Every structure is written in structure tokens, then in C-alpha cells.
Amino acid sequence: MTTSTVLTLPFSEIRATDLPIVGGKGANLGELTHAGFPIPSGFCVTTHAFTQFVDSYPDAAALYEQLDTVTDDLDIARKVGKHVRETLLTVPMPAEIETAVRAAWQASGNAHAYAVRSSATAEDLPDASFAGQQDTYLNVIGEVALLDAVRRCWISLFTDRAILYRVQNDFPHREVQLSVVVQQMVMSETSGILFTADPLTGHRHTATIDASYGLGEALVSGLVSPDAYRVDKRDMTIVEKEVANKLIAIYPVREGGINQVDLTPEQQTATVLSDAEIVELATLGAKVEAYYNAPQDIEWARVGDTLYLLQARPITSLYPIENLKSPDDSLHVYFSVANQQMMTNVMSPLGMSGMATVLPLGQPKGEVETAVLKASGGRLYADLTELMRHRLFRRLVLNVLGQFDALAPEMMRSVMQRPEFQRPSSIRFSFKTILGGVSIVRQIMASLLWRDLTDFPEKATQVLREGTRQGQARIDKASTSAGKINAAVERINTLYEGPIFWIPTAIAGALATQLIRRIGQGKAKPESLETFDLAFPGNVVTEMNLAIGDLADEARKSAALVALFETLETDSTAFLAAAKALPDTAVFFVLWEKFLKMYGSRASAEIDIQALRWYEEPLPVLQVIASYLQNAPGNHRKQHHMLEEKREAAIADLLNTTQSHFLGGLRNRVLRRMLHVTENGSVLREHHKFALVEMLRVAKEMLKEITPDLIEQGLIRAADDVWFLSWPELQALTNHKLPNAAELIAKRKAELTQYAHMAPPSILTSDGETPIAKYSVEDAPEGALIGNPVAPGVVEGTIRVIRDPQTESLDPGDILVAPFTDPGWTPLFINAGGLIMEVGGAMTHGSVVAREYGIPAIVGVPN
Length: 863
Prior knowledge:
The radius of gyration is 32 Å and the shape is globular. It has a 6-stranded antiparallel β-sheet. Strands 1-2-5-3-4 form a 5-stranded antiparallel β-sheet. 45% of the residues lie in helices and 13% in strands. By secondary structure, it is of the alpha+beta class.
């Protein structure tokens, strides 16, 4: 239906492909109308009309230039937005557009009242909702009021919240156009929001409904706490009903506009919808979801026995599960590797592929990547289903999970109780597997009971570095890009083969530590049981931290270098060049180069090959040195020595106290053996990760070396494209067997940008559920405020109570406390570190925006 001149279109002539001229809301309404859903009729004023309106202002280009100066600064956005809006308010609507709108209105029925709503071309998209960014006008009656509402909707594209939302989501201002939806007004007796998947838990089989009396404006604006219902879509069973105390409602006024009224005591505590109405609504929502083949956020209204859909859009806040689909139609449960690694930011596809390639189990025949790890939402998830179904492994897994997330075991148990999970484990122990397990157990017991482990950590480090050298040699020996890729994949895939000989000793060290605590329990001093394993030599992380302190001590010998460190900002290259030019820094740089050779492969988020290593960007290390310079000379060594003294005192206490108890001599012999194992075994807990990051450094340098050749061959377009393919895909690419590489790379780059704002749940099921576990209310400290969680996370910051978002603001990281929030509050969310509201539900404005921005949020905290 699109043309270059059409100014209005009725819903009946609009399809999804018309989004460029009717915006996301208009396109959805047209598509739903075409599909036969109960949509109140109406029309759209197209983006062509908006463009003509803006272009009718002689200096429109200057307005957009001002908009381009806006960053995340709220004050600048307010100033520029106000200027643009006030300017456009002086611009009259062109006569041609007035005529077109008047004709469409008369054809639709000029006796009706209308809802006039903004519909931007960058809203209601699968990856960005833009919900509530522009204005809506309800119960608009008459030609004059209609034309004025259309014009004000256009101008609302330049509200502070809309401007900032575009900046945050990298949408150029000039490229976002505005259509206006003019829809016959439903004088709703009840209304609300339906999510066809639970936006809080992510459960795709659960529909959640918020309902209130009157128009939905009270609910969407956060003025009322709605009734909340949950329905299992598989059998349309109502699984939960929560009736809220509803104080007010918003109703249309006969002369036009809306009015807020107080509800009667009976209405305040009555359920808004009957069971039959709840099921009818959930059934209709399921049909809309099936039509779009994606979970939907639906606005609905009811008048008498008639149910209307006012809008439907994709739910953008659900954590993606496309790669977590059950392989056998049962319920599978996954644990976030990101949470285990304390690295919740997104990983590159190649980084995730590296982790799947290095894990030495679960590879399907002929493949290098394990099937145990799955990529979803830019993070890795480990499939724990079969382990949790197996009696032997279940308790072990729960104990391990509790180390990373105190609530994870409870969440896991809730998943295990679901009927879809109840299946026997498919784990079977073949003779080969049993022999392998026996071999590993024998190695662990040998390290635990009789093997001499003296200097074992040093030997393990030598083997680690030799393995890295061998990997480098294999890559260097290859003469082609394909050969180098294959050599890297082979080395990564066999890195933990065997497994690495020190892993059984590391396990023995952990067991010995637990045995020592058990032997000394109730006998030695409690502090001795906590400090006997402090500061053992050989831990690669401890040694690295001490080396940084040594660098600071060496830097301190040069007054000029100390002064230079005081000026350190963000340009590490310029800083190091200036430092080298100083006359007395030669020894410092000898130590510096030695440090980078030893530890330069480390980084924040270091298991991701794309992460900038310290040898590439040493600023983090330089900043630590600068902070060390604030301390006394040798302070790091003194602190380490204090820990060593505490360890020695604890060991002496353990030996003395056990000697004096029953079978003291035998206990002492066992204790001394366990201390020997702990000293030389427990310090190896970081070696396996260090071996990986050392190999990743070699592989990364290889990729940087061959990238120009790949670009020259036309296999990739940019140097960073390699991070967006998996290792098997890189193998195919260099063998000219990946024709869709450019399409794959572009898609994954866009996805990673979208996923970056999401918080990965620690436990996730194949149907998208994020189980909720709560700390006991009884455990809350006296005076604690208890509310309902609507967006996950933990945050600490300065509390900022805001009542007027137009005049009050937040500093970055402040926790926003408000009676409620509506779309006018959205700019404050950019700086907000957390959100607490007095009223609201899981699907009201503040909750939805908080989830989209990844801000921890609690609502329903009275007073």
C-alpha cells in the first residue's frame, strides 16, 4: 500500500510491511485487523504527513543539528527538547494534511470519540519497544480537538524521554519518523495488560494479566496497583489470582478528555475479572502469540461481554532461549557460566565457542564443541539436566551451585519438582568411562595419601608454559590461514585432555583442606580453621598481585615517575612513552616487560578471546600501580608476610591441639600429611584457567596476524568480524565453505548489542523460566521494607527520593525511590542504579523499563 504521497491509511489497508509509513504501533494494528482479531477500527496519519509538517518549518535542519548534540546528559536533553518542541508548536499543520485527516476521520465516523496515539518507526520492534516514549490523547471528540492531538503527537517525538531513548539505543534522530494512530475509543469498563509469557520469570507457558477498572491509563501510568492473574496456557488453568487494593480508576468524560474517580470500597477489594473472562483473555492472547510466533505484550479492554485488543507488541525484556530448546521434549535446566565466572557481561561468539571447544566432555562425534554448553543471550549456559536427574550427582551439583549463588539450589529444586522434568537420567557408565573414573580417583587418592608434592606448583607452572609454547609452535609451523586455525582449534580442544595432570592434585588439595577443618573442628581455635591455608606460595593470582606491588615499589624509586602516575588518566600509550623518556626508569621497565610476559594474557572477562588483554591495553594494571603508590613502600609484602604469620600460627595451633586429644599421634600424622597436600595442591585452583588464557593469547595473536589476509580474500569485511564466528565456522570460512559469513556476522553483532543490556539469570529452563527464590521474610533485619521483585539484581547506592521528574534528577548509580513512575520519568532511568516504588505491578511502566534497562527493581513498598 505504500506510496510516496499517501497521508492517511485505514487499518484495513495496512500490513506489517507498511511499518516505514505507519510506525510499529500502526503496522501491528493493521496486521491484527487483517488477521481478524477484535481491533477497534481507525486509521493512521502516515510518516509522510509528519515529514511534510517538520519540513514546513524553514530551518528544520538546524533543529536536527541541535538534537545531534544531545548525549546522555539529562539537562542538555531537557534544554534542547524544550527548544525543539516550542519551535514546532508555532508551526501550523499544512492544509493538505488537514484535508486528508478530516476525510479519514469522516470516513471512520465523525460521531465517535477517538484515542490518538503516537506510532514511531522505531517502536514495538522485536529488540526495542520504545514503549510510552511519545504522547497519547484519549477520548478526543471533534475535528478541532483531533487535529490538535495529531499535531501534539508529532511534537512528542521530541520529548526528553524520546530523545534520550534514541540516544541510548543508537537510533539517529533523522531516521525515526512518526505516524499517528487514530483509533475509535473503547469506553472500557475494565482494561489492562496481558503478557503471553511471564515477564518476571520468563516462563513461556504462563500468561500474566494485569487488570483494573476503567481505562488502562491508570494502570499504564502506574497510578493504581492492578489485580494480577497467572494462567497456564497449556490447559488454560488459572494458577494464581492476586486481588489488589484498587483506590482509583480513570474514565472518559462525555464532553471529551478523561477524569480520575475514587472507587467504592466494594470495587477496591473485588476481583476485576471473573474466571471465565480471565480464561477468555488468555486464550485470545495465545492466538495472537501463535499468529506472530513470539510472546506478545497486549493492551486490552472490555465493554460488557465484548473484549477488544488495543495493541500488541513483542516482549523485548525476555531472556532469549532459542539455543536452549529441549533436545528431547522434556524440561531441561541450565546454569549460567557467566554467574560461575562472575562475568555477566556478554561474550563474543568466538569466546563462547572457545569455552565449548576446551571442555573435554560431551562432544558429539566428529565435532569439537561440547553439547553441554549452549550459547544464549550472549552468555554460556551449562546443561545440568542429566546430572540433576541422577541421584549420585544431584547433591554434588547442588553443593557446587550454592557456592556461586546462595539461592541457586532452591531455584534448581523448584525446577526439579515440575512434572516435565521428572525423567530417569540417561547417564550410563560404560566400561571405558568407569576405567577413566577409576584412573582419576586413583590419581586424586595418590596425591591425597602418599605422593610427594614438594615443589609441585612450580612443576605445574613449567608444564603450563610448555603447553603454551607447543601450541605456539604448532601454529607457527602452519603455512596457511586454514592451517593456523586448525592448529589453534586442535590445541584448544586438547588443552584439558587427560585431564591436565595437576587437576587431580588440585582436587586433592581441596579435599585436604576440608579434612583439616573436620579434624580440628571443636578442638583448634575457630580462627585457626579459617587461616591455616592463607598465603601459600604458588598461586598464580597471588604471585601476580605481589608482582604488581613490586612494580609500584620500583616506580617509587623515581620521583618523576611517581609524579607522572599522579597524572594517569586513560591514555596508557602516551603515559608509557612519557615514562620511558624519564632518565631513571630503566629498571622499572625491565620488571614491566617481565610482568607482561608472565601475566599479560590476563584481562577482565578474560575467558572471552575478544577481551583486551593487559599486553594490549595495560591501563588496568597501571591504575592499580597508581593506587599502590598511595600506600607505604613494601606494604603489599608486609601484608603478605602477616598472612604467612597467621598461617604458621594457625598450623601450630592445629598441631598442638590435635596432639593432646585421643589418638593424638595418629591425628598429627594425618594432619601433617593433609597440610602438605593443601600447601601444594590447593594453590593450583587457578592453573587451569591460567592455561586457558595463555593459549587464548596465542590464538588471538594468530587471528590478528591472518585477519588482513582474510579481508584481502573477501572472506570478512572488518578486522573484528572474526570474533563473531565460532571456531568451526572459522575453519569453514578459511576453506571457503561459509558463504553466508557476512550475514551471520551482521546478525550476531546486532544481537550482541541487544543482549548487552540484559542480566543473565543464574538458572534458566528450556521453556524460559527463571525460577524465583526469595530470602525468608523472617530473616529480614528489623525495620526492613518488604516489596515485590519485578526486575532482578542487587545494587547499593545513594537513595534519591523523587516526586517531580521534571525538576529533580539523579546522579549516576542513585537508587530512584518514587510513589510511581510513568513514561515522563524515563530519562531518570539512565542514571538509576535501582528502583523502588510504592505502587505498581510486574507489568506497569517502571517495572517494564527497569527490566529493559537491567535495573534491579522492587514495587509495592507502601509508605
